[in-house]
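This section describes the prediction task in plain terms. A model, or a person checking by hand, is given the sequence of a single protein chain and must write out its three-dimensional structure as a string of tokens. No templates, partner chains or ligands are provided. The sample shown here is typical of the held-out split.
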Amino acid sequence: MNKKFDSDDDVKNFRYIVAQWISHFLNPIVIAFFILLWRAWSIPIANLDFIIFLVAYVLVPIGSVLFMIFTNRINSIYPKNRKQREYLLIIGLTTYSVGWLIAFTLSIDNFLLMLASVYVLATIAVVCINRFWRISIHCIGVSGAATLLIDEVGEIGIYLGLLSMIITAWARLYLNAHTFSQVLAGLLLGITIGFIAILNIVSEV
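The expected answer:
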């Protein structure tokens, strides 16, 4: 009987660890980093484009999170307290907006510009929503990026996009980080913002 309980606990611990790693691997900062690497590998992009995106969408956001943890302004890299989330969102919105403005002015790679637009629009939406509700930022980020990938690479993007959305939703629910409605709303909002970014950038080309 004790062995069965131990086995059940081991399975739960394993699932918890997997859910945590999925949350870390598919958070918006890491998504931006890996998409940037993929884009730079798949097509030639200017060094300046790479640096702008890396600084604005990866280095500054992750540096801000670490600084706020070390100075006790937030108690987790994924704070549940809406006030603490607001600190990160305002910093994110500022750096994303500056990055987007520079990227747009310099006419960088269209796909990266669409991704930058997703981050800006998503953060604006979350800043507003966060005042009265705690929507899943993970799900917004992964579904917004997945929408762009599906548009960019077709069938492979569909498989990768759907898989990433499903496992991210499962992870956030398993960790009790969000309710089902918060996860679903995040997925739908991210997809919507992804389409808006695609339509806006394509219309500018």
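For orientation: The radius of gyration is 18 Å.
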